[in-house]
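Risk register update: the risk that structure generation would not scale has been downgraded. Supporting records follow, first protein first.
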Amino acid sequence: MTSTSRRTVLTALAAATVGGPLLTGLGAAPAHAATDLYASNTDLYTKLAGREGIDFARRYRRHEQADFSLGATYPYPRTTVVAPHGGGIETGTSELCLAIAGYDPAKPENSPAGGPVHDYWMFEGLRSSGNGDLHVTATHCDDRIALSLATGSLNVLSLHGCTASQAGAPVGKPEAVVVGGLNGTFKQYLHDAFRAAGIQTIDGSSVPDLAGVQPLNLCNRTLLGKGAQLEITTELRRKMFVDNTRAGRATSTTEDFRIFVNAARAAVARLEAGADQIIL
């Protein structure tokens, strides 16, 4: 691998901001895109104007970064963690997003969980029922904050929920995570970390609907034009919480939750140590 030059990164950022991803070709759209009620986040925000905080919510954190030195280079946030279908849409992904980003899901505003922190963004369903109607497929995500975070990051880790049958999990072993996205190195590090932690992984290449390989998928709209996507089965997410409700999840995480979070963070740390993560 080679280091990423400042000029390359700035050129990539301009292209991603103005013209979308650097890669060409959209690939096949996920099957569930055809069933979405809203064509994009903008469409949803427009049609549900005045319902934010009631039907849905948006939360994000962009960490301050600065370099005032003439001769030294300082670290900068390189990875963004996103949950496009959080809250009641794909339950558990909001809490995982916060924890993998380095924050306590119960007190994200002022309580880092320790270790490195990462930028994050999430869209959440807040309804008591019918949250699935708020689903906007990741290739149609046009939330401006989400896009600005993705296109300003070298890496994006996108968290989703699926069923065991959608994931193609073996009979009798429904607890699994499908690892997808266009960043092959990131995918391998995630496979390695999850398997070392005793978590069953399935490669996205064997599950086309969950592969996350479309260039317009939010996980791939990065400075490098590639990222990673995790599709976590319902059965695995259920094991992560004692009280699997919107009010209870953040304060009732289990050891399974912590094992998953630590594995994901280990994979991110390994990725960020790579030569292509350096801006010269």
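Supporting record for the second protein:
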Amino acid sequence: MRILTFELQGAQHGWTLEPMALDAFNLLVGVSGAGKTRIVRAIERVCAVALGSKEMEAQLEAMRGASFAISFEHEGLTYRWEAELEPHVGRVSEDHGALHTVEPPLIRTERIYQGQRPLVERTPERFLLNGHAIPKLDRARSAIGVLKEDPVMEPLFVAFSRCIFRALENLPARGVRFGPLEEWKNRYESAADIGADFSLSLHEKAELLQEWFPDAFAGIEEAFLEAFPTIERIRIHQENYPNHVEGGLCIMSLAVKESGVDDWISFADMSSGMQRYLSFLVHLSFAPPGTVVLIDELESSLGVNCLPAVTRFLLSRAPDLQFILTSHHPYIIEQIPPTHWKIVTRKGSRVRVLDAATIPAMAEDRSHLDRFTRLINLPEYEHGVQG
């Protein structure tokens, strides 16, 4: 999947994102409060609406009352999905004498196109699939989620399933319980198969890569050691906790060996920067082409010493993956070419995103530092939030 354009009219405070174009690599820049984080979270929530899983219920509720349109490419085809969601109304019903708040179903209307061909037209009164009327389906879920097993709709469900957001932020302090590895063997024939399974946790992916694809794990280790030269090795090891072996299961987690330190340092005891960079390396090194990666405040928890390695790693994956990032950090902004910058501005509740390359002052070939200086002095940046 690669998102081409995105627009949204939100229910919260009438927040509106004007249509924005997205490239393979996108760095959202702008003053605090312009709307960068809201854009990333809005895309995340649209993915949640598409998939409709119970784990994303809070994201779904946050989208009530919104309408959006997203166009994207997947497996050589272009799609456009438009939806209008029911607002919170707090209807009251009575059940056995008790009053309960009842919200309407989530989906009000939907339209899905493949190129110019309509696939789905859905209203409260009817549901058309490929131009043919079908019984009205559960309006608590999107057409993509309800019809995910239909040959026409399955690719769309797969496309939205290839979005990574919370996995990169979920840094489990404790390891995971592992049984015999043979139970997993038939599921994965390559490191790419492991990378494509977004249900695997950080420690599970690392364990499977280390055991079955040591060359792939060695690549992750090499990249990590480049950012942290005092580290000699990384590995998955068995944690030494009471009752760590139970019913054939043992708790395994990532650990590092640092020069001058006798004991291995478990994941829970690593710096937050080490934890976050390991998460990037393990989850993204073998993620399949077409994966969309959402990262808010890329520099969060990352020290200056590892920012160069992190930035180089993400740029190296850009040809295959689509990145939508936000950052305030001068180093990150300086090191990412201005052709990837998206300047976020807000007037009242209306958010607009500008391509830096379309602004004449940014088009000239200048040093990284000079381009950053010019960026923060642009009227579009300096006056990025207006009442």
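The longest strand covers residues 249-258. On this basis the risk owner (M.S.) recommends closing the item.
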